[in-house]
Design brief:
The protein has 163 residues and is of the alpha/beta class. The protein has helices spanning 3-19, 33-38, 57-64, 68-74, 79-91, 141-161; strands at residues 23-27, 48-53, 97-103, 118-125, 131-136. α2 links the parallel β1 and β2 (48-53). The radius of gyration is 15 Å and the shape is globular.
Length: 163
């Protein structure tokens, strides 16, 4: 684990303890990397409740309650799907805040409208509507996935600090 992710893990842990929050993650293209980063810090069971790795569309539907209509209408890599993933992570856990990541890490799978490096994020607090956004990262598969994890964790930290 690199120094940036270690620092983010520790800072997130402190912020969650301060605000008495549990985190849930819902990940697709990052395959659990955000959950791994969060749980890198000893004692993380005090702030990390669970993680969902929902790589297949069926897993997004079964585990997180993403609607088939959302997947058919917008695709797995969309702010709409990310928002439903983040909301579903809260509904299916005891967490009070969640993050979701879904994207195209490559090297294949991109299209003109959604090139390789397109990643959709969402963050959701209990009782609130999920906030979603799209970023396009560059680099190889590993670089795109790492950038996505860092962005998701930084976004989560911003939302915890505003809690």
């Amino acid at each position: 684990m690199d120094a940036d992710l270690v620092e983010l893990s520790q800072t997130l842990g402190s912020a969650c303890l301060q605000h008495r929050l549990l985190i849930a993650t819902a990940e697709s293209c990052t395959g659990g990397w955000a959950a791994q980063a969060i749980t890198h810090t000893a004692g993380s069971s005090a702030w990390f409740e669970r993680g969902f790795v929902t790589y297949a569309n069926e897993a997004k539907v079964d585990m997180l309650g993403v609607r088939q209509e959302t997947l058919a209408g917008f695709g797995a890599v969309s702010p709409e799907t990310a928002a439903e993933m983040a909301s579903g992570a809260l509904k299916n856990s005891r967490a009070l805040i969640s993050l979701a990541i879904t994207g195209i890490a490559g090297p294949t799978g991109g299209s003109p409208g959604k090139p390789v490096g397109t990643v959709c994020f969402a963050w959701c607090r209990a009782g609130a509507v999920a906030e979603a956004e799209v970023q396009v990262f560059s680099g190889d598969r590993e670089a795109i996935r790492r950038q996505a994890v860092v962005h998701a964790l930084r976004g989560l930290l911003l939302r915890i600090d505003a809690y």
